[in-house]
Every structure is written in C-alpha cells, then in structure tokens.
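Consortium newsletter contribution from the modelling node. Members have asked for a concrete example of what our holo predictions look like. Here is one, prepared for the iron/sulfur cluster complex that several groups have been discussing at recent meetings.
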Amino acid sequence: MNPPQLVDPFRRPISYLRVSVTDRCDFRCVYCMSEHMTFLPKRELLTLEELDRLCTAFVDLGVRKIRITGGEPLVRRGILDFMRHFARHLDSGRLDELTVTTNGSQLRRFATQLFDLGMRRVNVSLDTLDAVKFARVTRWGRLPQVLDGIDAALEAGLRVKINTVALKEFNEDELFTLVNWCHQRDMDITFIEVMPMGDIAEQDRIGQYWSLEDLRTRLSAIYSLTDLAERSGGPARYVRVDETGQKIGFITPLSHNFCESCNRVRLTCKGELFMCLGQEDSADLRKPLRSYPDSDEPLVAAIRGAIARKPKGHDFDYSRQTVAGTMTRHMSHTGG
Ligand code: SAM
Ligand code: SF4
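And here is the predicted structure:
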C-alpha cells in the first residue's frame, strides 16, 4: 500500500519537486551569481545515485512532477544517465513529468537524448536577443550558442518555453521583439520579476526591478489579453494573446502573492530541502540518506517533518524604500 500523500499544514498537497543538481554554471548572470563564485566541494554534492534514491522517495510520496535545475543542470557530468534511469518512473506512470530548466548552452548536444528519454518540454532562460546585451547580462554566455540550442530542442520535438527576467532599462525595449520571436517559433514566454537573491552588489544589479504590472499594461496597449484560469500551482499566471493565440506567463512574486496554491518544494544539490523559495528554513535530507544507506524510513520521516513546517508564504517586499525579505543565498543554490 502506498504511504499517504504529502500535505502541508495549510492543506496544500505537495506534488512538485524542483531539484538543483549542481551549483555550477557556464554562465554568470548578473542577477544570479557574482563573477567569482566559490562552489561546493564534490563531497558535499549528492551523488547521482543519492539523487535517484531521494527523488524516488518523493515519487513514492506522491510527487508527480520533477524539474531538474541548477546552476546549469546540463553541465553536471552524468546528468543524462541520471535522467535516463529516472525516466523509469515516467514509464511506470507514477510520474507525470520530468523536465528541465536550462540556459540552453548544452541543448545542441542533449536535446534529442532528452526527447528520447521521455521529456516533452523544456524551459530555456533568455533575457535578450541582442548578442552584446546577452554577453553583458550572462557575463560568460554567447547568444548564438543558445539560439542554436533552442533550434536543436525544437528540431528534437521538445516544446520550449522561454523564461525572461524583466529588467528595467535592459530589456524593456525588447518586449515586443521577444514576444514576436517566440510566437514565430510557436514558443510560449514567461516573464519573471527579478528577485532579491544572493549577496550581489547593488551596482551589479543590471536594470533592476521592472514590475510586470507595467509590462502587462504595455502589452495590452497593443494586444487583447485574456486571463487564463490555468495555474501551475506556482507563481505563474497566464494570459492568452487573442490576436495570435500565444500564451504569456507572468511570475510576479513581488507584485502579487502567489503562495496560497503552492504545491512545490525545492531540493538543493547538497540535499537541503527548502519548503519555500523566500524563507531560510530548510531540512537536511543528506544526513538520513547517508547515515541509513539500507533504509528509507529515516529519510521519509525527515521529508514528512519538513513538509509539516512548510510556511504559508514568503516575505519579499519591494514596496518600501529598501528591498525587504532579501535572501542571502543565490538563486543558483535553490535552483530558481
Ligand atoms: N541555469 C538554468 C537557467 O538559467 O535556466 C537553471 C537555473 S536558473 C537559477 C533558473 C531561473 O532562475 C532562470 O530562469 C533565471 O533567469 C532565474 N533567476 C536567477 N536569478 C534570479 C533572480 N535574482 N530573480 C529572478 N529570477 C532569477
Ligand atoms: Fe547560470 Fe542560470 Fe544562474 Fe544564469 S540564471 S548564472 S544560467 S544558473
């Protein structure tokens, strides 16, 4: 008999796990990382076998969707083997979706393999279509490589959703270019408000916070937007562009509260479980995993104990003079 599902104190069923499989990345996006990062020593990271055991425990507890993220997940050595093996849960029907959020740099190499293992959708982060601006915002990235990766994903049959961080005075002028570019390729696009993550110097914060309310107002000056009831259980709200049928998402952790329907938790690459992106509390799952190699009972007890502490919501707030609720950890740590 299956153990009872994970339900938090606010009666929210937990069915979605986001897993950061590495803190490393081949880019250094200005809002995500500082230029000189210190990464975790290898022994701190969960091995791929440990990741498999841990993620399988979540599937046993009723998680239906797993998103692999990072850092850049596709730069972790062996990650394709991990996903190929983990896809057995898709085949058995116990998992509805295995997907990935990537910066796109490795998609030319991996897209077909991702499709072949059962993946059907990927999220690719892209903030600008201007090569010079791209180099500025990612510090180490090259736009042509990412665009080629996106082409490879589409050619492989994957659905691609573009995630774009809305950055004042950086990509404001590309709003319609980006939306049209995605539409031409039959890709949805989701805009994300920049969140105060990491100890990034204020002067490094390119562009800064651009409210999606303003972005949406600009869109609706040109297009008719219809609100969609569809929710992902996460921070995204969606509209349909009546003229084109394209779907546009808005992730607005700051201008709207989205926590009431939250169905997700986040696992870091060293086995910490964060019950909320915007709170410091976490549970160490690596300890029960490593201390009890032959029994999952202590691990399951730790997972249940953590879910019982899931907070009601986050405390990010840009409405005052300074940014409140800032998290000292980087987005690459919790996986975005
Ligand atoms: N490397 C992959 C990528 O870039 O898609 C996956 C990890 S990345 C941390 C996941 C997402 O978080 C990306 O879409 C990125 O733009 C977003 N992100 C990073 N830092 C952010 C911040 N401070 N505010 C809002 N979104 C952020
Ligand atoms: Fe790397 Fe993604 Fe962070 Fe950019 S947003 S530095 S690509 S982890």
